[in-house]
Amino acid sequence: MHAIVSGAGVAGLALAGRLALDGWTVDVVERARAPRASGYLIDFFGLGFEAADRLGLLPALRAHAEWYGELRSVDASGRVRGRLPISLVEQAVAGRYLTILRPRIVEALQSSLPEGVRMRWGAQVETVHDDGARVQVLLSDGERLEADVLVGADGVGSRVRQLLWGPNEQFVRPVADLLAVAWIGDDAELSADLGSRVAMQVELDRQLVVAPLGEVGVTGFAVLRGVTPQGARSAIAGMGALGRRAVRAIREPYVDHVAQTVVERWVRGRVVLLGDACAAVSLVAGQGASLAIAGAERLAEELAWARHPSDVAAGLAAYERDWRPIVEREQARGRRAATTFAPHTRIELEANRAMWRAAAIPGVAHLVARAAGGVTKAG
Ligand SMILES: Cc1cc2nc3c(=O)[nH]c(=O)nc-3n(C[C@H](O)[C@H](O)[C@H](O)COP(=O)(O)OP(=O)(O)OC[C@H]3O[C@@H](n4cnc5c(N)ncnc54)[C@H](O)[C@@H]3O)c2cc1C
Description:
FAD/NAD(P)-binding domain, seven-stranded mixed sheet, binds flavin-adenine dinucleotide, D-Amino Acid Oxidase, Chain A, domain 2, 38% helix, six-stranded mixed sheet, alpha/beta
Protein backbone atom coordinates (compact mmCIF):
# COMPACT_ATOMS: atom_id res chain seq x y z
CA MET A 1 0.00 0.00 0.00
CA HIS A 2 1.16 3.53 -0.73
CA ALA A 3 0.43 6.90 0.92
CA ILE A 4 1.37 10.44 -0.07
CA VAL A 5 1.61 12.79 2.89
CA SER A 6 1.64 16.55 2.32
CA GLY A 7 3.57 18.21 5.19
CA ALA A 8 6.60 17.04 7.18
CA GLY A 9 5.38 18.55 10.43
CA VAL A 10 4.58 16.69 13.61
CA ALA A 11 1.45 14.95 12.31
CA GLY A 12 2.83 14.08 8.86
CA LEU A 13 6.07 12.56 10.14
CA ALA A 14 4.36 10.61 12.93
CA LEU A 15 1.92 9.13 10.41
CA ALA A 16 4.64 8.35 7.85
CA GLY A 17 6.74 6.53 10.46
CA ARG A 18 3.87 4.42 11.77
CA LEU A 19 2.54 3.50 8.29
CA ALA A 20 6.02 2.49 7.12
CA LEU A 21 6.34 0.16 10.13
CA ASP A 22 3.23 -1.55 8.81
CA GLY A 23 4.87 -2.05 5.42
CA TRP A 24 3.44 0.96 3.60
CA THR A 25 5.48 2.99 1.14
CA VAL A 26 5.15 6.67 2.03
CA ASP A 27 6.11 9.80 0.11
CA VAL A 28 6.28 12.89 2.32
CA VAL A 29 6.06 16.14 0.36
CA GLU A 30 7.25 19.22 2.28
CA ARG A 31 7.18 22.78 0.98
CA ALA A 32 10.21 23.87 3.04
CA ARG A 33 13.62 22.97 1.63
CA ALA A 34 14.83 21.59 4.97
CA PRO A 35 13.39 20.94 8.42
CA ARG A 36 12.18 24.25 9.86
CA ALA A 37 14.08 25.42 12.91
CA SER A 38 11.59 27.85 14.41
CA GLY A 39 9.16 27.28 17.23
CA TYR A 40 8.96 27.40 20.97
CA LEU A 41 8.78 25.04 23.91
CA ILE A 42 5.92 22.61 23.86
CA ASP A 43 4.39 20.99 26.92
CA PHE A 44 4.07 17.42 25.79
CA PHE A 45 1.67 15.25 27.72
CA GLY A 46 -1.72 13.58 27.41
CA LEU A 47 -2.84 11.43 24.49
CA GLY A 48 0.22 12.22 22.37
CA PHE A 49 2.60 11.27 25.16
CA GLU A 50 0.96 7.85 25.39
CA ALA A 51 0.96 7.49 21.59
CA ALA A 52 4.66 8.48 21.45
CA ASP A 53 5.38 5.81 24.07
CA ARG A 54 3.64 3.14 21.97
CA LEU A 55 5.45 4.37 18.85
CA GLY A 56 8.80 4.01 20.64
CA LEU A 57 9.51 7.74 20.37
CA LEU A 58 9.90 8.59 24.06
CA PRO A 59 13.67 7.91 24.33
CA ALA A 60 14.36 10.27 21.40
CA LEU A 61 11.98 12.91 22.77
CA ARG A 62 13.45 12.65 26.29
CA ALA A 63 16.96 13.01 24.87
CA HIS A 64 15.97 16.37 23.37
CA ALA A 65 13.80 17.62 26.24
CA GLU A 66 14.49 20.69 28.37
CA TRP A 67 14.28 20.47 32.17
CA TYR A 68 13.26 23.37 34.40
CA GLY A 69 12.90 23.74 38.15
CA GLU A 70 10.40 26.54 38.56
CA LEU A 71 7.79 28.61 36.78
CA ARG A 72 7.97 32.15 38.06
CA SER A 73 5.31 34.82 37.63
CA VAL A 74 6.78 38.34 37.34
CA ASP A 75 5.25 41.79 36.93
CA ALA A 76 6.21 44.65 34.60
CA SER A 77 8.90 45.90 37.01
CA GLY A 78 10.46 42.44 37.20
CA ARG A 79 9.17 41.74 40.73
CA VAL A 80 8.34 38.11 41.44
CA ARG A 81 4.61 37.62 42.11
CA GLY A 82 4.44 33.85 42.43
CA ARG A 83 6.41 30.64 42.10
CA LEU A 84 5.39 27.16 41.03
CA PRO A 85 7.76 24.18 41.27
CA ILE A 86 7.62 22.36 37.96
CA SER A 87 7.74 19.04 39.80
CA LEU A 88 4.14 19.79 40.82
CA VAL A 89 3.08 20.15 37.20
CA GLU A 90 4.78 16.80 36.50
CA GLN A 91 3.03 15.19 39.46
CA ALA A 92 -0.33 16.50 38.18
CA VAL A 93 0.12 14.25 35.12
CA ALA A 94 1.90 11.41 36.94
CA GLY A 95 5.27 12.22 35.39
CA ARG A 96 3.94 11.53 31.87
CA TYR A 97 5.16 14.92 30.72
CA LEU A 98 8.08 16.65 29.05
CA THR A 99 8.97 20.11 27.78
CA ILE A 100 10.57 20.16 24.36
CA LEU A 101 11.21 22.62 21.53
CA ARG A 102 8.94 22.06 18.54
CA PRO A 103 11.89 21.66 16.11
CA ARG A 104 13.35 18.96 18.41
CA ILE A 105 10.07 16.98 18.17
CA VAL A 106 10.32 17.19 14.39
CA GLU A 107 13.99 16.07 14.55
CA ALA A 108 13.13 13.14 16.81
CA LEU A 109 10.34 12.02 14.47
CA GLN A 110 12.58 12.43 11.46
CA SER A 111 15.46 10.46 12.92
CA SER A 112 13.13 7.59 13.83
CA LEU A 113 11.69 7.21 10.32
CA PRO A 114 12.02 3.63 9.10
CA GLU A 115 12.89 2.63 5.56
CA GLY A 116 9.97 2.99 3.23
CA VAL A 117 9.58 6.73 3.79
CA ARG A 118 10.78 8.96 0.95
CA MET A 119 11.22 12.64 1.82
CA ARG A 120 10.59 15.22 -0.91
CA TRP A 121 11.75 18.61 0.32
CA GLY A 122 10.98 21.89 -1.43
CA ALA A 123 7.89 20.63 -3.24
CA GLN A 124 4.16 20.82 -2.87
CA VAL A 125 1.06 19.23 -4.32
CA GLU A 126 -0.17 21.12 -7.41
CA THR A 127 -3.08 19.00 -8.63
CA VAL A 128 -4.97 16.00 -7.31
CA HIS A 129 -7.02 13.48 -9.28
CA ASP A 130 -8.99 10.88 -7.36
CA ASP A 131 -10.48 8.18 -9.60
CA GLY A 132 -12.12 6.32 -6.72
CA ALA A 133 -9.49 3.56 -6.60
CA ARG A 134 -6.20 5.51 -6.66
CA VAL A 135 -5.23 9.10 -6.19
CA GLN A 136 -2.85 10.79 -8.65
CA VAL A 137 -0.86 13.82 -7.64
CA LEU A 138 1.24 16.28 -9.64
CA LEU A 139 4.01 17.92 -7.60
CA SER A 140 5.43 21.40 -8.12
CA ASP A 141 8.76 19.85 -9.21
CA GLY A 142 6.95 18.15 -12.12
CA GLU A 143 6.94 14.66 -10.62
CA ARG A 144 3.75 12.58 -10.72
CA LEU A 145 2.88 10.20 -7.91
CA GLU A 146 0.07 7.70 -7.51
CA ALA A 147 -1.10 6.19 -4.23
CA ASP A 148 -3.93 4.58 -2.31
CA VAL A 149 -4.40 7.62 -0.12
CA LEU A 150 -3.36 11.29 0.03
CA VAL A 151 -3.06 12.84 3.48
CA GLY A 152 -3.18 16.62 4.01
CA ALA A 153 -0.99 17.07 7.09
CA ASP A 154 0.14 20.51 5.98
CA GLY A 155 -0.92 22.66 8.89
CA VAL A 156 -3.53 25.35 9.56
CA GLY A 157 -3.26 26.75 6.02
CA SER A 158 -3.32 23.26 4.45
CA ARG A 159 -2.57 23.16 0.75
CA VAL A 160 -4.50 19.93 0.21
CA ARG A 161 -7.53 21.43 1.95
CA GLN A 162 -7.31 24.54 -0.22
CA LEU A 163 -7.13 22.45 -3.39
CA LEU A 164 -10.01 20.09 -2.57
CA TRP A 165 -12.16 21.68 0.13
CA GLY A 166 -11.92 25.42 -0.53
CA PRO A 167 -10.26 28.65 0.61
CA ASN A 168 -8.78 29.03 4.11
CA GLU A 169 -11.38 31.57 5.29
CA GLN A 170 -14.00 28.82 5.32
CA PHE A 171 -12.09 26.67 7.79
CA VAL A 172 -9.72 28.80 9.87
CA ARG A 173 -11.36 30.36 12.94
CA PRO A 174 -9.35 32.97 14.84
CA VAL A 175 -9.40 32.57 18.62
CA ALA A 176 -10.04 35.82 20.53
CA ASP A 177 -8.02 38.01 18.10
CA LEU A 178 -4.76 36.69 19.56
CA LEU A 179 -1.40 36.77 17.81
CA ALA A 180 1.27 34.23 18.80
CA VAL A 181 4.99 34.98 18.46
CA ALA A 182 7.56 32.28 19.26
CA TRP A 183 11.33 32.47 18.90
CA ILE A 184 14.64 30.88 19.72
CA GLY A 185 17.69 33.11 20.13
CA ASP A 186 20.90 33.74 22.02
CA ASP A 187 21.36 35.91 25.09
CA ALA A 188 23.92 34.48 27.52
CA GLU A 189 23.19 37.09 30.19
CA LEU A 190 19.41 36.51 30.17
CA SER A 191 19.94 32.75 30.11
CA ALA A 192 22.24 32.97 33.17
CA ASP A 193 19.79 35.22 35.03
CA LEU A 194 16.95 32.78 34.40
CA GLY A 195 19.02 29.83 35.61
CA SER A 196 16.64 26.87 35.58
CA ARG A 197 13.56 29.05 35.83
CA VAL A 198 10.87 29.87 33.30
CA ALA A 199 9.63 33.48 33.66
CA MET A 200 6.04 34.33 32.86
CA GLN A 201 4.27 37.68 32.79
CA VAL A 202 0.55 38.09 32.31
CA GLU A 203 -0.96 41.52 31.67
CA LEU A 204 -4.22 42.74 30.21
CA ASP A 205 -4.40 41.27 26.67
CA ARG A 206 -0.80 39.99 26.85
CA GLN A 207 1.26 37.06 28.01
CA LEU A 208 5.01 36.64 27.73
CA VAL A 209 7.01 33.55 28.69
CA VAL A 210 10.81 33.32 28.50
CA ALA A 211 12.93 30.24 29.24
CA PRO A 212 16.67 29.50 29.13
CA LEU A 213 18.14 26.98 26.68
CA GLY A 214 21.57 25.80 27.79
CA GLU A 215 24.25 28.35 28.53
CA VAL A 216 23.56 30.96 25.89
CA GLY A 217 20.19 30.17 24.40
CA VAL A 218 16.81 31.56 25.29
CA THR A 219 13.39 30.87 23.89
CA GLY A 220 10.33 33.02 24.20
CA PHE A 221 6.68 33.03 23.47
CA ALA A 222 4.16 35.87 23.51
CA VAL A 223 0.43 35.96 23.02
CA LEU A 224 -0.88 39.41 22.17
CA ARG A 225 -4.47 40.52 21.67
CA GLY A 226 -5.30 42.99 18.93
CA VAL A 227 -1.70 43.32 17.71
CA THR A 228 -0.53 42.94 14.08
CA PRO A 229 2.58 40.90 13.19
CA GLN A 230 4.35 44.20 12.42
CA GLY A 231 3.51 45.59 15.86
CA ALA A 232 4.54 42.47 17.80
CA ARG A 233 8.09 43.48 18.67
CA SER A 234 7.16 46.84 20.15
CA ALA A 235 4.20 45.31 22.00
CA ILE A 236 6.55 42.81 23.67
CA ALA A 237 9.16 45.48 24.44
CA GLY A 238 6.38 47.58 25.98
CA MET A 239 5.65 44.89 28.58
CA GLY A 240 8.37 46.14 30.93
CA ALA A 241 11.60 44.66 32.27
CA LEU A 242 11.21 41.11 30.92
CA GLY A 243 9.77 42.30 27.59
CA ARG A 244 12.66 44.72 26.94
CA ARG A 245 15.20 41.95 27.52
CA ALA A 246 13.21 39.31 25.64
CA VAL A 247 12.99 41.23 22.35
CA ARG A 248 16.78 41.40 22.06
CA ALA A 249 16.92 37.67 21.37
CA ILE A 250 14.13 37.52 18.77
CA ARG A 251 15.40 36.03 15.50
CA GLU A 252 13.22 34.64 12.70
CA PRO A 253 10.19 34.25 14.93
CA TYR A 254 7.24 32.01 14.23
CA VAL A 255 4.33 34.46 14.01
CA ASP A 256 0.77 33.37 13.48
CA HIS A 257 -2.75 34.23 14.47
CA VAL A 258 -4.04 31.93 17.17
CA ALA A 259 -6.62 29.89 15.30
CA GLN A 260 -8.54 26.67 15.18
CA THR A 261 -9.62 24.78 12.09
CA VAL A 262 -13.15 23.50 11.74
CA VAL A 263 -13.87 21.27 8.73
CA GLU A 264 -17.24 19.59 8.34
CA ARG A 265 -15.87 16.42 6.69
CA TRP A 266 -12.24 15.35 7.03
CA VAL A 267 -12.43 12.77 4.24
CA ARG A 268 -13.08 13.22 0.52
CA GLY A 269 -12.78 9.99 -1.43
CA ARG A 270 -9.18 8.88 -0.99
CA VAL A 271 -8.01 12.16 0.52
CA VAL A 272 -7.97 12.78 4.26
CA LEU A 273 -6.93 15.66 6.51
CA LEU A 274 -4.81 15.22 9.64
CA GLY A 275 -3.43 17.40 12.44
CA ASP A 276 -3.82 21.17 12.27
CA ALA A 277 -5.22 20.91 8.73
CA CYS A 278 -8.57 19.84 10.18
CA ALA A 279 -8.16 19.69 13.95
CA ALA A 280 -6.07 22.64 15.15
CA VAL A 281 -6.89 23.34 18.79
CA SER A 282 -4.70 26.48 18.79
CA LEU A 283 -1.58 27.39 20.73
CA VAL A 284 -3.54 28.38 23.82
CA ALA A 285 -5.04 24.89 24.20
CA GLY A 286 -1.55 23.53 24.83
CA GLN A 287 -2.11 20.17 23.12
CA GLY A 288 -1.44 20.74 19.39
CA ALA A 289 1.68 18.62 18.99
CA SER A 290 0.42 15.97 21.37
CA LEU A 291 -2.88 15.65 19.49
CA ALA A 292 -1.04 15.66 16.16
CA ILE A 293 0.90 12.54 17.18
CA ALA A 294 -2.11 10.83 18.75
CA GLY A 295 -4.29 11.60 15.69
CA ALA A 296 -1.57 10.27 13.37
CA GLU A 297 -1.38 7.05 15.35
CA ARG A 298 -5.18 6.72 15.20
CA LEU A 299 -5.25 7.19 11.41
CA ALA A 300 -2.34 4.79 10.91
CA GLU A 301 -4.06 2.13 13.01
CA GLU A 302 -7.17 2.40 10.88
CA LEU A 303 -5.15 2.09 7.66
CA ALA A 304 -2.62 -0.48 8.84
CA TRP A 305 -4.73 -3.50 8.08
CA ALA A 306 -5.97 -2.20 4.67
CA ARG A 307 -5.12 -4.53 1.81
CA HIS A 308 -7.78 -3.42 -0.66
CA PRO A 309 -9.12 -0.03 -1.87
CA SER A 310 -12.44 -0.54 -0.05
CA ASP A 311 -10.53 -1.12 3.22
CA VAL A 312 -8.97 2.34 2.84
CA ALA A 313 -12.36 4.04 2.61
CA ALA A 314 -13.58 2.18 5.71
CA GLY A 315 -10.39 3.06 7.61
CA LEU A 316 -10.67 6.76 6.79
CA ALA A 317 -14.30 6.83 7.91
CA ALA A 318 -13.45 5.07 11.19
CA TYR A 319 -10.61 7.53 11.88
CA GLU A 320 -12.91 10.53 11.51
CA ARG A 321 -15.71 8.92 13.51
CA ASP A 322 -13.44 8.08 16.47
CA TRP A 323 -11.06 11.00 16.49
CA ARG A 324 -13.38 13.95 15.80
CA PRO A 325 -15.17 13.93 19.22
CA ILE A 326 -11.80 14.09 21.02
CA VAL A 327 -10.67 16.99 18.85
CA GLU A 328 -13.93 18.89 19.36
CA ARG A 329 -13.65 18.49 23.13
CA GLU A 330 -10.07 19.88 23.10
CA GLN A 331 -11.08 22.74 20.81
CA ALA A 332 -13.81 23.80 23.25
CA ARG A 333 -11.25 23.66 26.08
CA GLY A 334 -8.85 25.77 23.99
CA ARG A 335 -11.42 28.50 23.42
CA ARG A 336 -12.07 28.69 27.16
CA ALA A 337 -8.31 28.85 27.85
CA ALA A 338 -7.96 32.05 25.81
CA THR A 339 -9.09 34.22 28.75
CA THR A 340 -6.57 32.74 31.20
CA PHE A 341 -3.88 33.13 28.61
CA ALA A 342 -4.37 36.80 27.88
CA PRO A 343 -7.00 38.20 30.28
CA HIS A 344 -9.22 40.72 28.56
CA THR A 345 -10.82 42.38 31.61
CA ARG A 346 -9.51 43.58 34.98
CA ILE A 347 -11.57 40.84 36.66
CA GLU A 348 -9.94 38.15 34.53
CA LEU A 349 -6.51 39.63 35.26
CA GLU A 350 -7.19 39.71 39.00
CA ALA A 351 -8.38 36.09 38.88
CA ASN A 352 -5.07 35.16 37.28
CA ARG A 353 -3.10 37.05 39.93
CA ALA A 354 -5.15 35.52 42.73
CA MET A 355 -4.28 32.09 41.33
CA TRP A 356 -0.58 32.94 41.57
CA ARG A 357 -0.92 34.31 45.12
CA ALA A 358 -2.66 31.07 46.05
CA ALA A 359 0.32 29.12 44.75
CA ALA A 360 2.31 30.43 47.73
CA ILE A 361 -0.05 28.68 50.18
CA PRO A 362 1.26 25.25 51.19
CA GLY A 363 -1.01 22.53 49.84
CA VAL A 364 -2.61 24.79 47.25
CA ALA A 365 0.27 24.90 44.79
CA HIS A 366 -0.58 21.48 43.39
CA LEU A 367 -4.09 22.74 42.52
CA VAL A 368 -2.56 25.70 40.70
CA ALA A 369 -0.25 23.30 38.88
CA ARG A 370 -3.26 21.31 37.77
CA ALA A 371 -5.04 24.49 36.64
CA ALA A 372 -1.90 25.69 34.83
CA GLY A 373 -1.97 22.39 32.92
CA GLY A 374 1.59 22.90 31.79
CA VAL A 375 4.59 25.12 32.02
CA THR A 376 4.66 26.75 28.66
CA LYS A 377 1.06 26.34 27.56
CA ALA A 378 2.13 25.98 23.95
CA GLY A 379 1.93 23.15 21.53
C1 LIG B 1 7.67 26.55 11.94
C2 LIG B 1 6.59 26.21 12.93
C3 LIG B 1 6.76 26.60 14.26
C4 LIG B 1 5.75 26.32 15.20
N1 LIG B 1 5.94 26.72 16.49
C5 LIG B 1 5.02 26.40 17.41
C6 LIG B 1 5.20 26.77 18.77
O1 LIG B 1 6.15 27.42 19.13
N2 LIG B 1 4.26 26.40 19.67
C7 LIG B 1 3.18 25.66 19.29
O2 LIG B 1 2.36 25.33 20.14
N3 LIG B 1 2.97 25.31 18.02
C8 LIG B 1 3.87 25.64 17.06
N4 LIG B 1 3.65 25.29 15.77
C9 LIG B 1 2.43 24.54 15.44
C10 LIG B 1 2.52 23.11 15.95
O3 LIG B 1 3.68 22.51 15.48
C11 LIG B 1 1.29 22.41 15.44
O4 LIG B 1 0.13 23.00 16.01
C12 LIG B 1 1.18 20.96 15.85
O5 LIG B 1 2.42 20.37 15.97
C13 LIG B 1 0.32 20.22 14.83
O6 LIG B 1 1.15 19.67 13.84
P1 LIG B 1 0.85 19.57 12.29
O7 LIG B 1 1.85 18.59 11.78
O8 LIG B 1 -0.58 19.33 12.05
O9 LIG B 1 1.17 21.01 11.72
P2 LIG B 1 2.55 21.75 11.60
O10 LIG B 1 3.47 21.36 12.69
O11 LIG B 1 2.23 23.17 11.40
O12 LIG B 1 3.20 21.13 10.26
C14 LIG B 1 2.71 21.38 8.97
C15 LIG B 1 3.83 21.12 7.99
O13 LIG B 1 3.32 21.28 6.68
C16 LIG B 1 4.22 22.05 5.93
N5 LIG B 1 3.50 22.71 4.85
C17 LIG B 1 2.78 23.85 4.90
N6 LIG B 1 2.28 24.13 3.68
C18 LIG B 1 2.68 23.15 2.85
C19 LIG B 1 2.49 22.88 1.47
N7 LIG B 1 1.82 23.72 0.68
N8 LIG B 1 3.03 21.76 0.94
C20 LIG B 1 3.78 20.91 1.72
N9 LIG B 1 4.01 21.13 3.04
C21 LIG B 1 3.47 22.22 3.59
C22 LIG B 1 4.81 23.01 6.94
O14 LIG B 1 6.05 23.55 6.48
C23 LIG B 1 4.98 22.09 8.12
O15 LIG B 1 6.19 21.37 8.07
C24 LIG B 1 4.59 25.59 14.80
C25 LIG B 1 4.45 25.20 13.47
C26 LIG B 1 5.43 25.49 12.53
C27 LIG B 1 5.27 25.04 11.10
